[in-house]
Amino acid sequence: GQQVKQSSPSLTVQEGGISILNCDYENDMFDYFAWYKKYPDNSPTLLISVRSNVDKREDGRLTVFLNKSGKHFSLHITASQPEDTAVYLCAALNQGGSAKLIFGEGTKLTVSS
Amino acid sequence: GGIITQTPKFLIGQEGQKLTLKCQQNFNHDTMYWYRQDSGKGLRLIYYSITENDLQKGDLSEGYDASREKKSSFSLTVTSAQKNEMAVFLCASSIDWGGAYAEQFFGPGTRLTVL
Q: Which chain B residues have any C-beta within 8 angstroms of a chain A C-beta?
């Protein structure tokens, strides 16, 4: 089964609004969580990551929220801009286990002006 | 900084053909990966190499071989191309395996089309 799942294949947000991207996972041993961003015809690049000892991490307009009991983490992008339009991939791994980074299917975010 | 290069950028093959994709990194990273990207399925791990001379199967290794020729290079072979197959293959590297340095850096990809 899909260990890391992004149930929304696409999301459209108005410029200036908050984009909320969601990711659910199955393995409660995962202890590293990441969001990668991918522009069309470009490779994924790491946006932000958190370890399981925190439940929130902020970096500029980006905030990752981690809900370990719900096996869920999300990426919030405030003041969304057209250049935020991209595919966002969530990923997770168990550092003490197989340590393989497992990716979700991706959510295509479109920020409309 | 560093860079990951993948060759070729576009690969067109015939059904049943053996096809090789190459990846080079100059980050001096220990660990390298090959992923397959299909629409709606995210990135699926085909093979990875934790250090030079290591080779590990990922979740999608059937139909593929890989070779870590040296620390900086990792190649992937499609052993028998499937008709009408279309996918993007991404190579990545990281400082080491999981641990404190889990960030992966990706190459630009090789787009495979099988006629």
A: 4, 35, 40-45, 48, 58-59, 90, 97-99, 102-109
